[in-house]
Amino acid sequence: MRRLVFALVAVEALAGVGADMAPASAQADGEAAPIFGVKMPPGYRDWRLISVAREEGNLNDLRAILGNDVAIRAYREGQLPYPDGTIIARLAWDYVPSEENNKVFGRRQSWVAGPPKNGVQFMVKDSGKYASTGGWGFAQFNDGKPADEAVHNTCFSCHEPAKARDFVFTRYAP
Amino acid sequence: MRRLVFALVAVEALAGVGADMAPASAQADGEAAPIFGVKMPPGYRDWRLISVAREEGNLNDLRAILGNDVAIRAYREGQLPYPDGTIIARLAWDYVPSEENNKVFGRRQSWVAGPPKNGVQFMVKDSGKYASTGGWGFAQFNDGKPADEAVHNTCFSCHEPAKARDFVFTRYAP
Does the model's pTM come out above 0.90? Predict the structure, then answer.
């Protein structure tokens, strides 16, 4: 699967849309997050969409859950547990009213993604390396920097209720 | 750019993850929508994410806006007007509470994507063909079938307030 990703990048580069389309997040050599040692996966902003969500309360965001090729394939095939190599990314943005849309509709109607918020989170499947946490490594990055150890201590326990779906809450949105 | 897309598909097929990963929506020979003659673009569910949104009122959905390669490149480079070949897709799902997440948090917390809702919409840029509507063709498909002509008569007028951004409301979510 890793070979596939490289092949795709190569084709894009040949067509002249490689370097200039790489988002700022596509850095392979960033700092590893504590406990699980996960680094920010390069190119995750280009991954395909799994689903979207809205969190209320203190989080107060709109979010998108993206998956690498292994993740998308597993989701579409209903494969459980997720195979090693699966990476799921959770992006989130401030939940802001669209004054522009509301004016068009003449009422409060639309909420859109504001600036990035609540960091970017990843779940990385490696059943050997992360055997004690259901086969998953967890990571959160705030402005590209790993969150602290206390944050990472909460990940697995929070995901345990989703054990029947291999600790993954998000369902695929067709 | 069309050549690039074909190249990517070819590489995926060679790696053996072509046919089985193609979503049901990837049909090139569907029925064309009225007025603009737009067909459902094959493989749009695999496109990259532009942003997410939440619509209240009768729409009551969570949505994702995806773009083909031309669209994503234009967004990231801030290119206006969008070049011919740009296609923007709007997917939407029912706005449903996540009972599962709410139980974990012990309060009303999470809203997730339910079943598909409000059809799938597309904006297709062809400055010659669609000169009278700002260079954009519009289409909505409900369960894979084009919506009627009355629906398509409302598209451009609703997008006119966003003329300064080439009639596109959605901003890129980094």
Answer: no
